[in-house]
Design goal:
Chains A, B: It catalyses: D-glucose + NAD(+) = D-glucono-1,5-lactone + NADH + H(+); D-glucose + NADP(+) = D-glucono-1,5-lactone + NADPH + H(+). Chains A, B: InterPro entries: ADH-like_N (IPR013154), Glc_1-DH_arc (IPR026583), Glu_dehyd_C (IPR031640), GroES-like_sf (IPR011032), NAD(P)-bd_dom_sf (IPR036291). Two copies of one chain form a homodimer. Chain A is an alpha/beta fold. Chain A is built from ten helices and 20 strands. In chain A, the strands form four sheets. In chain A, strands 3, 5, 6, 10, 11, 19 and 20 form a seven-stranded mixed beta sheet that branches. Chain A has a six-stranded parallel beta sheet with strand order 14-13-12-15-16-18. A three-stranded antiparallel beta sheet of chain A has the order 2-1-4, with no helix packed on it. The interface between A and B is large, with 59 and 58 residues.
Chain lengths: ~350, ~350
Amino acid sequence: MKAVAVTREGSGPELIEVPDPTPEAGEALLRTLRVGIDGTDHEVIAGNHGGYPEGDDHQILGHEAVAVVEDANGTGLEEGSLVVPTVRRPSGADGGHFERGEPDMAPDGAYVERGIVGAHGYMSELFTSPPEFLVPVPDSFAEYGFLVEPISNSEKAFEHAFAARSAFDWRPESALVLGNGPLGLLTLAMLETERSPFDRTYCLGRRDRPDPTVDIVDRLGSTYVDSRQTPVDEIPEAHEAVDFVYEATGYAKHAFETVDALAPNGVGALLGIPEDWTFEIDGGRLHRELVLENKALFGSVNSNVGQYEAAKDRLTAFPDWFTDALVTGVYDPDDADAAFETGDDVIKTVVEFDTP
Amino acid sequence: MKAVAVTREGSGPELIEVPDPTPEAGEALLRTLRVGIDGTDHEVIAGNHGGYPEGDDHQILGHEAVAVVEDANGTGLEEGSLVVPTVRRPSGADGGHFERGEPDMAPDGAYVERGIVGAHGYMSELFTSPPEFLVPVPDSFAEYGFLVEPISNSEKAFEHAFAARSAFDWRPESALVLGNGPLGLLTLAMLETERSPFDRTYCLGRRDRPDPTVDIVDRLGSTYVDSRQTPVDEIPEAHEAVDFVYEATGYAKHAFETVDALAPNGVGALLGIPEDWTFEIDGGRLHRELVLENKALFGSVNSNVGQYEAAKDRLTAFPDWFTDALVTGVYDPDDADAAFETGDDVIKTVVEFDTP
C-alpha cells in the first residue's frame, strides 16, 4: 500500500510502498480517508520528536485521521462506519493511566504516539487498531473528521482550565489565543461557538493584512492582535486583561508573558512545545503577580476519548465557512510533498487517501 | 486601650495608647485574647505592604487573632464566646467577590486587609467587626485559635491544588513544602495529618541541625531537605519528583524550580510574595516540561470563611506537642518588641492581651 513517511535516508516526507497491514486478534483493519497535517508533523520531519518504530527504518506520518472500518475482525465495530483514531498507545508501565481512560495523563516513557514517536501514523491507505482507540463518528465526518483530534486537545485544555478555577465562582468573560496557526484558529472558533462562556476573544499573530488567517479571526468576531505592535504583556493596556489564555505558539516567552496578560483569577493553558531557551525574566514580579492575583498556569498535551466525544459536538457546531476557509488544500498521497509546503496562503492541509 | 502599632515616625512596632473603639450598628465589640506574628507582619513593619488606614498616622498590627465577644451589640453573636476574625474587608467595587463569600478572590484595590494594608489589625485590647467577618470557634481555641488564619491560607491552597487536578484521576503520594518558617511547618503538619492523601512529605530549609524547626520536621515524620546541599530542582534526583509543591519562602527562583521538582501531572502552589527580581531561566525547557508532563502552577492568597472552618478541624487534629513546639514565645503587649524579635530559636510568637 501507499504510505507517506520519513525515512532514515530521506530528508522529508516521501511516498513509499509498504506491505498492507494485517490486523491481529482484537484489532480492526481501517481504510484511511483523510489525514490532516499540523505543526507536530513538521517537528517529526525535522527530527525533533524522533523515535522510529522499533526495528523500522521509516516512520509513517500522520496523527489526525478519519477512516472507514474495512474489516471489523471480530472487534464489534460496524464495517463501513467511520472512526477517528486516538494517538497514544501504551508502551510500558504507565501507572494505570491507559486503563483508566487517561492516556493523555501518562508520563513520558509510558506511551508511543502514532505518527509522532515510536509508532507508525495514519498516513497510509490502511492501518490497524484495537477498537478502544477508535472513536466512532457519523458519516458526515468523512470530510472534516480529521479535525476531531486537534479539537480534542483544546477540549482537554478547556476542561483543565475550568477545573483549575473550580474552587471558586469563576466568571470569565474574555479569552486570548496566542497563535493564528491551525490549532489557534480551531481553538478560537471553539471559543466563539454558542456554548462558549467567553463574550470577547482575541487572537495573537504576526502577519500583515490582508491575510487568510486574519480574515478568519475577523469573521469569527474576534479581535486580531499583531504581536509586533502589541506584545503579549501589553495586551491588558491595549485591550484588556483576559480571563483565559490559550498558548499555541511554542514561543517560550509567551508562557511567562501569559501571567501579565491574565486578569486576576485568570488561567493560562500552555500547549506549545519549545526547545531549550534561556532568557531573563522578572521572576520576582511574576511570582508575586501569580500569588496576589490568584493566577494559574498549566501545561496540557494530548487528549482522552471523552474529549474526542466533546470535539465531535464542537466540530458539528462550526459554521461551514470556517472549516472551508481553514482547510486550504486537499492533496493526493502522490502530491504529499505539496501537502507539507508552508506559506502565507496555507493554513491547514490534508492528504486524502480515499472517499467513503 | 493598649495597641501594638507602627507609626509614621517610629522605626518598629510600638506599644501605643489609643481610644477604645465603639462598635457601630451591625458591629460587635471584641476583646482580644491572642494575636500571632508572621512574616507578613515583618513586611508591614518594613513598609513593604504600606497603606496606613485613611486619615491615621499609625497602623495597628496583627491579622492572626482569637478574641472574645465582649458586646454582641445586636449582631446575634453570643457574648463570651470565642471568634477568629477574617482579614479582608471590602473597600470598593469588587466584582461581587465579598457578596459571594470569596473575599480571597477579590482583585487588588477592592479590599483592605486588617493589620496589613489600609485597616487596623487586631493587636489591641479591643476591636470591632461585623459578624460576617468573625468565625465562631470553641472555647478550647483560646490558646491556639490564632493559628486558624494561617492554616486557612493553606486550606485554600490545598483546595485550589486539588481543583486544578480534578479533571483527571489524580493520585498524589508525595508533597514538598518549601520553607520551614511557621507557615511551612503548619502546612507540613497539615500534610502529615491522618486525612492527608500524601504518603511521603519533604520540607526544605537552610538550617544546620540541631535546630528546632528541623526537629519538628523530623518529629512530624517528614524528610528535611537542606537547600544548601539539595537545591529545589535537584530534589527529584536526591529524593523523588513530588506530586505537590507548596511554596512558602517568597524566594522567586523557587517558583520556577518548582516545575522541576514536580512529578508528571503535579501541581505547585505559590504563596510567597517576593519583590521584583530579574534572573535567567531556561524558559524553553520549563515551558516544554509544563506541557509534556501536564504540570500546573498557581498562586494563592488569603482565604474564605469555608477555609477557616476547615482550618478549625485541622487545628483540632494537630498533636499537642506540635503546637507547643511551634509557638516558641508568648508575650505581654508591654514586651511587644521582644515578640517581634527573630532568631534561630524563634519559630512563632504570639502577643497575649488577655485570657478568657
